[in-house]
Amino acid sequence: MADQLEFHHEEVKAEEEEEEESKKFNYEEEEEQVFNSRAWFDILKHRLSSSSAAAAKTPESAAAVGSRKLWTNEIIKLAGARIIQSRSSTDGIDVPAMLGDGGGGLNQEEAKDVELMEHLLECAEKVGKGEFDRAIELLGRCNCWASQTGNPVQRLAYYFGNALRQRMKEGTEEVGAEAEQNDDDRKPLESDTAVTLPDEHGVEFHRSVPFYTASQLAAVQIMMDNVVGEKRIHVIELRICSGLPMIALMQALTSSGPTNSIEMLRITALANDESEERFIHGSGERLVGFAREMGLPFSFKIVRIWDSPAAHKDKLGLEPREATVVLAEYALSRMVTKPNRLEAMMKLIRSIRPRVMVVIETEANHNAPDFGHRFVETLFTAGAYFDCLASCMEGNEAARAVMESRYLNDRIRNILVAEGEKRVARDVKIGVWRKYFARFGMLEISVRGLGLQHANLVIRSSPFAGSCLVALDRKSLMIGWKDMPLLFVSAWKFMKAIPH
Predict the structure, then answer these.
(1) Alpha-carbon distance 356 to 222, whole Å?
(2) Which candidate, 196, 156, 149, 168, places its Cα nearest to that of 360?
(3) Is 325 helix (H, G, I), strand (E, B) or coil?
(4) What's the whole-model pTM score?
(5) CATH architecture of the region 200-364+428-494
(6) Can you list the pairs that 195-201 forms with residues at least 24 positions away whose Cβ atoms lie under 8 Å?
(7) Are 372 and 40 in contact (CB under 8 A)?
(8) Are 91 and 83 in contact (CB under 8 A)?
(9) DSSP tag of 71
(10) What are phi and psi of 156, to 5 degrees?
(11) Where are the domains of the chain?
(12) Please, are residues 466 and 482 in contact by the beta-carbon 8 Å criterion?
């Protein structure tokens, strides 16, 4: 299915933006840009133009589209197209190609959902421009149909409406009674949870959503490919999330040959703060127990790097006889607000010279200083997640509701409301990372082969295989939902010398 699909970064403008962003990763002095209606309009048009191009590559008849229920992002696209049609020409946007019949023949629920998304998009525009009176009016219209317990579109609108309400509160103390109605606004904004979900709901999430398992097994296979025949293996994890990749690695090592062929598997987990250290400690205990059951010689160690990462290299206990690999699972994007720390971490990794560095990150642009740009990008990313959870966690509504209200809600609000260092959810796309990694003499290596095969195997064995995206973006693996890439897996080696 997905082996033949490839992505290419097509737009020169997008590449120029990636080049500029990767040069600095310096947001400590960042000032939010004044809302630019034209830019908001352009990013919306770009999203729709991309959809039209994708539809042209994989055409679907109007009859086929009309016979199925539109998924969440199609509702958003149709709402955006209607806004653009009402204000300007639709150059480059082929609505019929994108949605079969251009939105005609919607059932009653879909028609209401499209109208809801129109109000939400227009509300975001007004919030960005500081036109709060009009924004509150539009928010009131959203509240007539948005619901925390409704369909995916209604739930999406509910949480985004709360974020807009809170952003208005941040901008002024008096925005009317309509902006004071939800207690959720008073929850903490700081959220750096990527997929660090140790409770039963997080476990159920990982079990239910196939593309997370696919990405982790692909990462494990890439590490295995680079330690073939080695008896002593050292994995340095920049951040332990679920701990599942290391369990999969243990299983792979013991299934690839006699257990006694592995003299030692060492895992060193880096802790950035005290709360993270406590979580890692619990994960380490589980890994130690799992290794004991498998009879695998195993060592687990936590290294604090609360100040400068480079100052703690000696604590890693590197040994010449070991094959060292690095796993960065949702770790690097957390450092975007601290560019000096990110650079120090990259220099530390380079000095280690691992056999391979495997990176798993969110494939999204949530880092634009312009609010309108961030809103549109986040709406599409969250739309894919809400749609995915509705399908993959059907029958487990309690766990799904917790995932939406805790994890997704926190990230939405952090991206849209927080500014400066408090805005820790600053995902950037793989094109930005490629240019940033080049500064450290890193060479991208292909994930084709067993890594890609493992990802495809997980997806194909899922009941939701037809809704999952597995594709190649140059040498890296892109995984997502429907036509929306959501995360990537890439592999890197360090050149002997940094090119000038």
Answers:
(1) 8
(2) 196
(3) strand
(4) 0.86
(5) 3-Layer(aba) Sandwich (3.40)
(6) 195/241, 195/242, 195/330, 195/407, 196/239, 196/240, 196/241, 196/242, 196/279, 196/330, 197/241, 197/242, 197/407, 198/242, 198/279, 198/282, 198/283, 200/399, 201/398, 201/399, 201/402, 201/403, 201/406
(7) yes
(8) no
(9) P
(10) -60, -45
(11) 34-186, 200-364+428-494
(12) no
Are 417 and 235 contacting, i.e. CB atoms less than 8 angstroms apart?
Answer: no
| pLDDT digit string, tens, across residues 47-78 | 776 654 444 444 444 444 455 789 999 999 99
- Report the sign of the C-alpha dihedral through residues 395, 399, 401, 403, in that order: negative
Contacts of 452 (CB under 8 A, 6+ apart): 3, 218, 470, 472, 477
- And the tokens for 244? 């599942």
Length of the chain: 500
**399-434 pLDDT per residue, tens:** 899 999 988 999 999 999 998 888 989 999 999 999
CB-based contact 488:363 (threshold 8 Å): yes
Which residue from 325, 308, 135, 167 is spatially nearest to 237, judged by alpha carbons?
A: 325
Residue 147 identity = S
- Is the model more confident about 10 or about 407? 407
| Structure-block tokens of residue 73 | 């992002």
pLDDT at 169 over 80: yes
CB-CB contact of 398 with 82 (8 Å): no
The answer to whether residue 489 scores a pLDDT higher than 60 is: yes
